[in-house]
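User: Sequence in, structure out. Go.
Assistant: Echoing your sequence, followed by the structure tokens.
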Amino acid sequence: MKQRKVLLGCALSLSLITALASAPSTVMAQGDEYAVECTAEEDIKVELEESVYVAEAEAETGAETESVAEESVKDAVEEDAAGETEVEESEEESETESESEAETGEESGKRMLDVIYVGGEAASDENTGAAAETPVATLAEALNWVNEGGTIVLTGDVDGSEITKSVTLQSQGGVITSSSVYVSSAYIVVTNGVFANGVAFSGNGSNSVTFSGAMDGNYNSISGFATVTIDASVLRTSNPNSPDIFLSCSNLNLNGGSVISGAFSTGSLCCSGQNQIINLGNIFMDSLSVDGELIVTISGKFGDDMEAGITVLTVANGISADTLANITLNSLNSRNGLFILKLDGNSLVTAAHNHTLVLVDEVKPTCTEDGIAAYYTCSDCGVMYNDAEGNYPIGMTIPIEKLGHEWADTLSYDETGHWYGCNHGCDEKMSFEEHTLNERGVCKCGYEVFAVLEGKAETYTVGSEEGLRFRFAGSVEDFKALYVDGNLVDPADYKVESGSVIITLSKDFLKKLSIGDHTLTVEHTYGKTEVGFKVAEVKPGTGASENKSETGKKEESKKLDTAKTGDTVNLIMLLSMTVFFGLTALVAGVEFLRKRR
């Protein structure tokens, strides 16, 4: 393009010069000057023509070069387009292949599962394993498609495989038939009987296994696990008559309701709840703790075969008194307490035993709780008997059936309400209701507002330092006014307190009253309530006395009457004796005078 522009510029310059040359000359018309100018013009013209020629040649060459360049660019563009097409085609092919693979995965239904089924007549590794009707065929395939922490359900028998994931194994009619199973995952949970008898079950030395609710088959060995937990499960050795160790671990945990049958070795044994170990002989461990009860059964030593001196278990770090108290010998071995476990150094051994029986008193039944019949128990071994001689052992206490409630026919009541009480004396109340009062403040149960609860027939003795106290049923809010002998009492002369309604007359007020009977009247929301009292003077020689109730006064009156009656009797006897002796002297004198005459 630049060459064409140069050529065009040269052509325009040449045209301009030619036009100037052909025009009439007016500046120089004569002589050499004119010739020189013309020659100069011609030289310039020639030079310009040559320049134009060269420029045209260069332009042609540039055009060819430009054409070649344009063709090269065109080729490059075409190549790029072709490349892009190939890339797009390649990407489309990849997408097509991916889509094809995805479609294949969707068609097979393979996906990671929390619960996967394996084994059985319908088993195939082409199945998803998502349901019992579509189980996979191998344990390895199940491990491929189960999530960590998931569950593998055996719907049929399968060969063993290395357990590479932390899972729960559960049987639904199937077992793992291999003679050995190795676990490399962090943990495994074994439930109801997933292994065939005689399996060797092992870990990697640092992982753990939990047997949960497992009534498992017999094991040839359980080893290589750092921690073994037996949770409400039964584990047995496949060689019950052999003292060889079938279970070994660093930590063994027995949780409530578990049984381990066979020799074992562990660093520590921790028991919680009631558990049992069954063994032919000694069991070794470093430490032992029992929170609950550990029952020891010595296999093959029942009835008369039982003997003293059998070592049951040995604890390197010793057995504390609290732990020892929680370990008992099976009653089938103890022969009703004739043998017990005793500590011999760091070992528990069987020993002969004589009972020391003590009476445990009866626990009487209540309306809601059973009682316990009296029994006898040995203060050393704890075996229970129904008799003092120890002839009739009992495996447990004998309950006495609870009484049940026997409701009264009449209502009981207090200030809060009324109810039917129990004739057995318990505190339960049936059909409790608040009082419904009539216009006189009386309820159907007999409760009466401002009924006199305390203070009937009270007596105030003049000179006493205390006033008179009366207590009425009801609430202080219902109290209105107080009268004595019909006269309104100034509130300064009495005190009203809650606790039902407690009214206390002051001693200063009582001193003003006359000696004799008086009437106290309480005015309240439901009407009026009256109660009598007395004011008494001080008896000569007695000084001021404390206020006494009518009952106290009656007792005192009886004593006074008795004293008066005694004085009368003594006077009559004295007069009788005087008359008797006087008459006797008179008769004797008359007889004496008669004889003298």
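User: And one key feature?
Assistant: The first helix runs from residue 2 to 22.
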